[in-house]
Amino acid sequence: MEVNKLRLVFFFSFAALIPSLWANIAEFDDVWKPRAEEAWKNTLAAYEPNPENVTSNLNYNVNKAMAKASSNKTMEFEGVSTNSTRRNLRGKHKTYTGPCMGTNPIDRCWRCDKNWAKNRKKLANCVLGFGHKTQGGKTGKYYRVTDNSDDNVLDPRPGTLRHAVIQKKPLWIIFSHDMNIKLSQELIVQSKKTIDGRGANVHIAYGAGITLQFVDNVIIHNIHIHHIVKSNGGLIRDSVDHYGLRTVGDGDGVSIFGSTNIWLDHLSMSECQDGLIDAIQGSTAITISNCHFTHHNDVILLGASDTYARDKLMQVTVAFNHFGKELIQRMPRCRWGFFHVVNNDYTHWKMYAIGGSMHPTIISQGNRFIAPDDPKAKEITNRNYAPESEWSKWVWRSEGDLFMNGAFFRTSGPPAPPRLNFNKLQMIKAKPASFVRRLTRFAGALNCKKGFKC
Quick one: signal sequence residues (predicted)? Predict the structure, then answer.
């Protein structure tokens, strides 16, 4: 419902008392209430009661992709044997000029088709992991962003990104040319949207970040997100028929709040005021893949409260990402749920890589961990707010990981639970970490040009 001027003074004075449960929503009105109820129903529907099914399916696809790669004689890769293999990222590394290589099963699904621009929606068939049902705007029309401005958050101009994401119908959003978009307020995205940056160099930077709140089926692909700062709040339109009062934004790059079936792929992210990615308050069915993270403290937060037990339904896959220069901690930091961290390349951290509290289940498979030179920061894992007598029961497993420069993973919990009756192909483990360099070689935003393989 619309907010009239007479109520604004009350809302601004009351904002400080609003429970943190509702994030930046200053008025939990008759529009947000049903959205929240529907979002929780989506969480219950998206929850996988046997998460090993998902991890085994991903493992199978990784091995199938690697088997094809090893039989392709045109594919050559650099070695991964020492700490000297740390890549000089943040846009200063040498541009790859060789043949197109889909080096992991997600990329292999779409990347090396020179007609990708004519068949963009094929991307929606490529997601693996807990977000594997995410369709984004696959059933909708294309929306072409032609205007990089964001100067009217109550009545967004057609052709802007904000105008695109508030539409209620499914949309596949693309960009007409290279753009630097400075968001004046948080970008509140409706359900069933794909933000597809392929074919343009798109940066969301030096302004507010992206908010996915009580929504489902969102894909964000191939864009740069960096230098995100806190937003002031105020009246912001979140759909074509509703706007409401928002409190101050935290400065997250991507904030996922009470949302399901979310896929973040090929993002380059750095230097946000709060987290690069937060997923909280009953969010689940999420895949974070092929991203490149640099220059940040709190990288990924999955579950924000030790008292919010609904996050026990949170299930997230973190796969084929490169955690690069000047990162400090939370890659990810987990609470309550089930987290599959598979075939990522950890070349930098300053405190720890993977942490958690409230007995999360963390399955680490086939990652490469290169510890910093600091002798006090060799441990990959970090348990919070619990004595050893408690955290020793948490299921944190390491399978096929590669530990370099003194890195070590402190496992915990009882022996692995009995596996379900999968067939032999499904039971294949994720590729060992010696393959990680090639699996993550093209992490981050890609330079895709129409008519050429991406």
Answer: 1-23
Q: Tens of pLDDT along 181-211?
A: 999 999 999 999 999 999 999 999 999 999 9
Q: What string of DSSP letters covers 93-115?
A: SPPP-S-----SHHHHTTTT-TT
What is the distance between the terminal CA atoms of the chain, rounded to a whole angstrom?
A: 44
Q: Is 214 left (phi over 0), alpha (psi -120 to 50) or beta?
A: left
**In the predicted structure, residue 303 carries a pLDDT above the cut 90:** yes
264-287: string of b/e by CB count within 10 Å (b at 16+)?
Answer: bbbbbbbbbbbbbbbbbbbbbbbb
Q: What's the one-letter identity of residue 179? A: M
Task: Report angle CA 364, 63, 355 to the nearest 5 degrees.
Answer: 10
- Given a contact cutoff of 8 angstroms between Cβ atoms, the answer to whether 421 and 325 are in contact is no
Strand order in the sheet with 345-346: 179-181, 202-205, 224-226, 268-270, 292-294, 322-323, 345-346, 368-370, 402-404
Query: What whole-number distance in Å separates Cα of residue 59 and Cα of residue 207?
Result: 38
Catalytic residues: 330
Q: Does the domain made of 51-68+80-439 have the CATH classification 3.90.550.10?
A: no
- The 3-state DSSP composition of the chain as helix, strand, coil percent (nearest 5) reads 20, 30, 50
Alpha helices in 128-236 (DSSP H): 161-165
Classify 83 as helix, strand or coil: helix
| Rounded Cα–Cα distance for residues 340 and 318 (Å) | 6
Tokens of 315: 């299930």
- Tens-digit pLDDT profile for residues 355-383: 999 999 999 999 999 999 999 999 999 99
Q: How far is CA 268 from CA 215, 234, 289, 362, 447, in A?
A: 23, 29, 11, 24, 12
Rounded CA-CA distance 206/200 in Å is 19
Strands 242-246 and 234-239: antiparallel
Task: Identify the helix (H) or strand (E) that includes residue 172.
Answer: strand 171-175
Token code pair at residue 367: 């990652």
∠ CA 52-276-344, nearest 5°, is: 40
Nearest to 288 by CA among 214, 328, 351, 344: 344
